[in-house]
Amino acid sequence: MDTQVSQIQTEALAAIAAADTEAALEEVRVKFSGKKSPLNALAAGMKDLSPEEKPVAGQLLNTARQAISGALDERRQSLQDAADAASVADLDATMPARALPSGALHPLTVVKDRAIQILRRLGFALAEGPEIETEFHCFDALNTPADHPARNDSDTFYFDSGKLLRTHTSSVQVRTMEKQTPPVKIIAPGSAYRRDEIDATHLSVFNQLEGLYVDKDVRLSDLKGTLEYFYRAMFGDKTEVRFRPHFFPFTEPSFEIDVKLQVKGEAPKWIEVAGCGMVDPAVFSAVNESRGDEAFDPAQLTGYAFGMGLDRLAMIQYGIKDIRLLIENDTRFLSQFA
Ligand code: DAH
């Protein structure tokens, strides 16, 4: 029995070592440690042994069984390890990771945020008003006569109710003065709407930033200094700024502002960027009437106001030739700003 056991063990260990796949190893396992294994056959013959021989034979069989199952486990592990290693053999761990596309702020957002940041540094607080406005806030209170062309059906989106989509953010001047008492120093970025024919420089919805400063002794020189500072902060220290007399119903005197800029790949030229002026006393009177008090006394207070196109600023800043690119959400365009 002794030699039989050690023969079986030798044979089993050799078969285990020779099994080079997990399937082959499984066959060896069934053969040498399954129910019909030669060791089990020997064990069945133990009943014929004498009581002295039995424990010795039992011990022998156990040792052989343990050796075989230990060898099976070890071989299984090493076959698995080899398979794992083979499955990542082609992998180059030093290869750079695949780049994740990164998001970015929209160019309009970048320009708007910068404008707000500069003006907040100068003490302007953020204000807002509704985009669906009354004729009073958009036109009447801003001293705009009933026959002004901007009030025309063909220029402005009217609702059946008589309300309209605000044609400029100047309505926020009125909204703010209705709520606050002087001094008032606000900026109001937001959308405005006009029935414009859509082309490379016009959309029916666009973005403006309105400014208003009302206090005692606010002067035209304050307006000039503030806006010159603003445009130099926006476009560079040496930027030339020009105030060209103009007309707006809600300011007197009024100006258009041009900055001399070099758009990428072009000769420097004057570009119109904003309207501005000293608040017309008629605006204060309309506000007082709406408030029902004299908080904005035209005899005591002066103020300046300005309104600029933010889309225009973004187009200048980035050399964008077609305003429609700003709303088309084409990632081929937008990813250039990432
Ligand atoms: N509201 C004018 C526009 O949309 C811009 C403007 C001009 C705003 C003069 C002002 C201003 O506050 O004083 O064209």
How is this structure best described in words?
By secondary structure, the chain is α+β, with helices and mostly antiparallel strands. The protein folds into two domains: 2-80; 107-337, Bira Bifunctional Protein, Domain 2 (BirA Bifunctional Protein, domain 2). It has helices at residues 2-18, 22-33, 38-44, 53-87, 107-121, 135-138, 171-179, 220-235, 281-291, 310-318, 331-334; strands spanning 125-126, 132-133, 164-165, 184-193, 205-215, 240-248, 251-261, 269-279, 302-309. The protein has a seven-stranded mixed sheet, sandwiched between helices. It has a two-stranded antiparallel sheet with strand order 2-3. Helix 1 runs parallel beside helix 4. It binds 3,4-dihydroxyphenylalanine (DAH).
Brief synopsis:
This protein is 41% helix and 20% strand.
Which terms summarize this structure?
single chain, 338 residues, alpha+beta, BirA Bifunctional Protein, domain 2, 2 domains, seven-stranded mixed sheet, two-stranded antiparallel ribbon, 41% helix, binds 3,4-dihydroxyphenylalanine
| Strand order in the largest sheet | 1-4-5-9-8-7-6
Task: Write out the CATH superfamily name of the largest domain.
Answer: Bira Bifunctional Protein, Domain 2
Main sheet makeup? 7 strands, mixed
List SSEs in N-to-C order.
HHHHHEEHEHEEHEEEHEHH
Residue fraction in strands? 15-25%
Radius of gyration: 43 Å
CATH topology of the largest domain: BirA Bifunctional Protein, domain 2
Inertia-based shape: rod-shaped
The overall pLDDT, averaged over residues, is: 93
Please tell me the total number of domains: 2
Question: Can you tell me the CATH class of the largest domain?
Answer: Alpha Beta
Distance between the termini: 81 Å
User: Counting H and I runs of at least 4 residues, what is the number of helices?
Assistant: 11
| Helicity range | 40-55%
